[in-house]
User: Fold these one by one.
Assistant:
Number 1:
Amino acid sequence: MAKKSKKNQQQGAGAGGTPATVALTAAGVAYTVHSYEHDPAHPSYGEEAAEAMGVSPDRVFKTLVADVDGSLTVAVVPVAGQLDLKSLASAVGGKRAAMADPALAERTTGYVRGGISPLGQRKRLRTVLDDSARAHATICVSAGRRGLEVELSPEDLAELTEAVLAPIGRA
């Protein structure tokens, strides 16, 4: 059975809003919310989102939290690929990077795994957006809940998160 994706324009401050959509609304940024029925048995949150929305996986970006030299850092990369930890460390002037403890990532961002958004985090973390995002007019990232994505321009995402754009993803 195909999953349905609902699109809502700028639904941030209303019912169902998340800190991410509230932040987008407050910033006056154009965005679209896509919601779909999350399947807990699906092996990949990002691939599930791309399939449910009917969007190419290279336009759907996952939000990962890594530890770079003792400092938590957000990496936003296409779900079709993987995060290159060495490239992430280099992008922020660090030496070593490793994936952060999931419980620490959840506590720090205020979001649950599979629903971590680069926007509206409890504690603002430095952010690196894979430069492949520039190839698209819009990209999708988590809106702060499993089954909820937000589509916006990569330029707006980079500006709102003060992200560095760098080649941190790999196929």
Note: The helical segments are 19-27, 45-53, 85-91, 102-109, 154-161.
Number 2:
Amino acid sequence: MNGSRPASAATGGYSGTPLAKKIGIKAGQRVRIVHRPEGWAIPGLPEGCDVSDGGPQGTTDIVLAFFRARKDLDEQAAGLARALAPHAMLWIAWPCRAAGHESDITENALRELLLPLGVVDVKVASLGEDWSGLKFVWRKELRGSVDPPR
């Protein structure tokens, strides 16, 4: 994230919605960030949130994973989805082309990789000026199971 653009960092892009709200973070939730870009943060977190780096662990509520290349995404996406608790959400972020970044990751590539695993995409959003994100959750019929397919 470019440090010279604090207003959009706080709002997560052009919509004006605060980034924490856009991501869906609620008070007391545990958030894990995988491959956090240098300087990227979530301003305005609700009270009692625990944000840490690394893959999903224990009762993580939200996982945000950043990828610059499809090759890396291909290697790790299935593991990230399979590690999600039934109630959790997974955001996959990639460099935003509208901001002039190049990436071989697309929304359709994410769907091809993750939908067969039992998760479904429910939202696309700007996660700052430099990142696009697609939110995945377990399909409704799988959320109630104690152990979704892994």
Note: The first strand starts at residue 30 and ends at 34.
Number 3:
Amino acid sequence: MPTTPTSPRTPTLVEDDRLVWVERIARLMDSQFRMPGTRFRFGLDPVLGLLPIVGDLSTFAISTVLLVTMMRHGAKGSVVVRMVLNVLFDTIVGAIPILGNVFDFAYKANDRNVRLLREHYVEGKYQGSGKGLIALVLIGMLLFFGLLAWGLFVLFTWLWHAIQGA
């Protein structure tokens, strides 16, 4: 059964109700709101990015869930790699204080990933589930997340000792 488009200009990814929520969440995170009097759009990603650490980790988690869902629906390996790079680039640069907050308003990784998947389906390169690739990407992202958490722990421990010693 066909689904209705999320906006008049943007068709849905595929005629698949399971992917409609991916488009909706991506839009909420990256382009749901419009700055009054302009054409500039933003979502919850840059707003959550204003919360140190917790905001960046939550947007990373949401982007990862969207990415895994898109992978489950048969995105080819090269498309998945581009999607992962979008998410990692958004997470790493977005974590930089001040610059990252400005960057989050401009770089819309989830919208980019939905657009990549849509182009992938339009080109007819859909290939099935890609379970092995999903496992590999999940392990890589968990490793990245673990290293990030460890690095933050070391940084805060060092800062704590520096403050205590002063």
Note: The first helix runs from residue 20 to 30.
Number 4:
Amino acid sequence: MKKILLFLILTLVLTACGDDCYNKPQTIAFEFVNTDNENLLANGELTTFSIRDENQSSIQLTKTSDNKVILEGVGEYDGTKNYTFYSNIKVFDFSIQSSEFTAGCNGYQINKLTFHGVEVTDQQGYYRIVLE
């Protein structure tokens, strides 16, 4: 009886991470600041902004309570995609390189972000972007 119970538990554990298991890419968040390091959303200077991918599809953006912007649904592909940020202050391009993640569960991981035409610092959890 113990062997049957052990077999059933082991089978359940090994199949629990099957087709229903999916790892989303890590969250990408931006903080937009001026050259004095003031948050442009908090001070009201950044009033309109959007992001479009290389196919001109809009990327859903979520503003957080601490005046950062989360990019929704990016990085769920294998390869590199180009994006353009549009705002009332500045327009710039960036790309996201991601790859398939198959360790344990299926999904995608973001490998690299590349920015063009802006000063960016990685703040361990979000990217601080200087808009001038």
Note: The radius of gyration is 20 Å.
